[in-house]
Amino acid sequence: MKNPGEANAKELIKGLQTLKAIPQVKQLLIGVPASTEKRDVVDNSFHVSELMYFDNVKDQNDYQVHPVHKAFVDQYSHLWKKVVVYDMITEG
Q1: Is residue 90 part of a domain?
Q2: pTM for this one?
Q3: Is residue 51 part of a domain?
Q4: What is the 3-state secondary structure (H, E, C) of 76-89?
Q5: Across 16-20, 28-32, 33-37, 66-70, least confident range
Q6: Within a domain: 22
Q7: Is it the case that residue 31 has pLDDT exceeding 90?
């Protein structure tokens, strides 16, 4: 986040919750770093995280151009300086 802090994190989380209205989003989980034991394999360098589930790549592509997603980016992008995305297809 550009200016880390509880107020900005809460504002971003509020914005992320609007993405639940997009029909292609099957599940949306939003969180902050857990206060687990510090270990070399744990990356808790982020401030807010989201995990989205889609049925397929087409739905994910449709999400990218959905007006609710575009409005979220327009309204809340001033809060972050960097976004990291890990797209994956589950196995099994």
Answers
A1: no
A2: 0.90
A3: yes
A4: HHHHCCCCCCCCCC
A5: 33-37
A6: yes
A7: yes
pLDDT tens figures, 48-71: 999 999 999 999 999 999 999 999
CATH number at residue 10: 3.30.70.100
- Whether 46 and 31 have beta carbons less than 8 Å apart is answered as no
60, 24 in Cβ contact below 8 A?
yes
How many C-beta atoms surround the C-beta of residue 75 within 10 A?
A: 12
| DSSP three-state, residue 30 | strand
Whether the CB-CB separation of 12 and 5 falls below 8 Å is answered with no
Number of domains in the chain: 1
Structure tokens at 9: 């994190």
